[in-house]
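FAQ: What does the model actually see?

It sees only this:
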Amino acid sequence: MVGPVVIILVLLLIPVVVMMSGAVASAVLGFVLGRDAETRHEGSELIELND
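And it is asked to produce this:
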C-alpha cells in the first residue's frame, strides 16, 4: 500500500519542482542580465529615462 502512495506523491511533486526551478532560474537570469546591461551602458542618458 505504500508504493502507490509514494508514486502519487512523486507525480504531484515533479511539476511543482520543475516550475519552481524555472522561476528561480528566470529570476537569477533577469538579475544578472539587468546588472550586465547597466554596467555596459553606464553613462548613457537612456538609463536615466527608465526611472
